Fold this protein.
Amino acid sequence: EVQLQQSGAELGKPGTSVKLSCKVSGYNIRNTYMHWVNQRPGKGLEWIGRIDPANGNTIYAEKFKSKATLTADTSSNTAYMQLSQLKSDDTAIYFCAMELDGAYWGQGTLVTVSS
Amino acid sequence: DVVLTQTPSILSATIGQSVSISCRSSQSLLDSDGNTYLYWFLQRPGQSPQRLIYLVSNLGSGVPNRFSGSGSGTDFTLKISGVEAEDLGVYYCMQATHAPPWTFGGGTKLELK
């Protein structure tokens, strides 16, 4: 069974960074793209970017190019997203998801930005 | 980027009622490989999106057959034939034909009348 287990909730101060993780079991992440999507409070789903864990190649949505950094560790089958220069409007739930016809999503990580 | 427009934004239904949600795309979602990468998700409160339908009309694993998807090109529909209480939540369409990026519809909230 494929499962995506995301790291726990984060509380970050403005101007700092947080790094979220997404550990995959039941499937080798080298064989797929890993996507990240966010959802601001009460809002819809917004694509952030994707990484090819096999070679580290990344593509970002324009608005997240200076905000998010995607990495992956194939030895631990884990994808990561670092969010930098946190602002209050970065407060959101962040989901990881596999490329496989959208079938597999993590449970989400709540990031709260507050001083 | 492709824009997906979902209607209605709120849908009120009684248990057992059949309902439909529309998703219209700003561009055709037919890919050059012959597939149409249009998906439907349900997000229940406090949960991550759950895939219901893939490639327009294919039912996801474990998804009840009261859900069905149809459409082509730029117009797509999700139908629920007999709403049950567990179906309440927000429905999203998503396209991956013109990806990256994945783009999502604005969502349709299904609530009890």
